[in-house]
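Data card: per-record layout.
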Amino acid sequence: MQIYVSRAGQEFGPYSLDDVNAYLESGQLNANDLAWFEGETDWKPLRELFGLPASANNPREQKANQSTKDADGVAQLAAIAKCRTHLRLAVAFLFLGVGVIFAVFGEGSLVANLSVVTGGVLTLIATYRLAKAIRSPVAWLYCVLQFVPLVNLITLLVLDRKASKLIKQGGGQEATGTSSTDSKIAIGALILVPIIAVIGVMIFVIFGGDK
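The structure for this 211-residue chain is written out next.
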């Protein structure tokens, strides 16, 4: 294919398709330059002849588009990191409600029941928000599975792992533009929760078992 290019009334060429692509990339040709090759009835812009994107050969527009994509990526990573922390804290609160509050106020007490309900609602909301943050098409399914014993814990682990993987692929915690303090607090809470829960249950069994 021999391609001729016209700019400001002057004709250039013929060029091969590889030459045209190279000149477009280097900026020597513009996607709006008129071109013609055998078989065409009229001169047409290069972008129209070869289906070039609107931002082709426009460095400013390309840079702006890339900046927008980068900003969107950072915003998504920040949202994922934030929602992951909220989910971890919600799960920690739920376990604390089952362990410590049950031990202090007794099983079946109003405070204990309210703590479990509150923890469950917070976990459900945090689950949905994190699923939406990672742009899962089945965010609702993660919420439904929270009502299935044991499966809900596996679901939370899977969701947390997916979020952590995306954050790692995006450059880690630093790339999210958020502080790692919240994440460390959440991880610490998750580590302490089983210990506190066991202690709480033991206290309830020892001191509350005779009530």
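Known properties of this structure: The chain has a mean pLDDT of 75. The longest helix spans residues 59-105.

See the next section for split statistics.
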